[in-house]
Amino acid sequence: MLGDGTFLGVTDSAWFGWTLAVPIAHQLLGWLVFRGQLGWGVLTRWFGEADLRVWGIVFMPLLAARPLTMLALSIADSGSLALFPRVRVLLAGLLLVPALYAMWSVLRYFGIERALGGDHFRLRFRRMTFVKEGAFGWSSNAMYAYVFLLLWSLALAAGSGAALCSAAFQHAFIWAHYFCTEEPDMRLMYGKAEDIP
Predict the structure, then answer these.
(1) What residues make up the domain containing 88?
(2) Cβ(196)–Cβ(186) under 8 Å?
(3) CA distances from 65 to 21, 25, 26, 70 (A)
(4) Is residue 1 part of a domain?
(5) For the chain, how many structural domains are there in total?
(6) Domain assignment present for 138
(7) Is residue 170 one of the residues assigned to a domain?
(8) pLDDT tens-digit profile of 37-54?
């Protein structure tokens, strides 16, 4: 039950709110930037060749805030999930493995600039072939399918029911971002829907 725990002097209820507010702000900003960039080149007009770097400076702290606020909530609300500790830890470990492998695959095969939405900024990214190595061999959208399992893993490891609810929200919400923002953008940038993996 929320309201009983704290971490760093902040209540679990407040941490729960942050785990919802950060992804909403992050994805809303992503939608605005991608729309502005794809339609009018807004960041390129404002910042020239530094446009993608500026976007990264804004994007990366928000991305990092997702697992950090989830970790804080998991600690503040730890033990609220009615699962045997060994089962929780086992499930957390099982989810952590594909999450870490997908993160490594993003860094190794995809690259940070491309993960930032580089194809909204540079034609050279649009000319690259779709990645099929690493976790991208399992799913063309390994970032959303597997990296977000990290949030589930944190929640399960701490045994936090509130964090598990937040992980479910964030994982569903990132897929909403994909289907409402990225997939339509890819149709515009790459052609027909059947050409998009």
Answers:
(1) 6-195
(2) yes
(3) 10, 11, 10, 8
(4) no
(5) 1
(6) yes
(7) yes
(8) 988 989 999 999 999 999
